[in-house]
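TL;DR need structure tokens for one chain.
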Amino acid sequence: MIYDLMSKYSNVPSADLVCCIFQLAHSDYLGIVKLNYKPSFIHYVLQEETGRVNNIVKQKTSLPNEGQKVEECIFINLDDFSIKIIEKKYEIDGEKRFYLSSDLLECTEDLSAKEKIKILEKAVEDTIIKYYGENELARKAEYKRIVNENIEDEKK
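>> reply
TL;DR here they are.
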């Protein structure tokens, strides 16, 4: 299925795929790790009649180096089927989007707290402008104070 998606979407990089089952904190997981190919160079020396010849060749399909972060992976908890995913957005059909979660897993993501606050800020700002005008800095400040108090209360 991943190969079909990579073939369908030309901007998604080719890769090797590692699939495994592992245990973490007394839970079994299915791990799917996509090792996107990276260009690299190799060096080799040929001994010819006229002397040594140094060659440098570009490899287009090298695996990531040992110290590189994995750019795309999926971990599925086999006990409760919760999913942890790391993925990158790629341009697909004219828009940047995630293909692993939307096309492969057909799932939606939880918004981060930061994203939720941005949406709330935009909604409050639009409401303040609509009902009180654009220069209502006091109302905007009051809103931010209330949101911050609620965030602090939730942390306790």
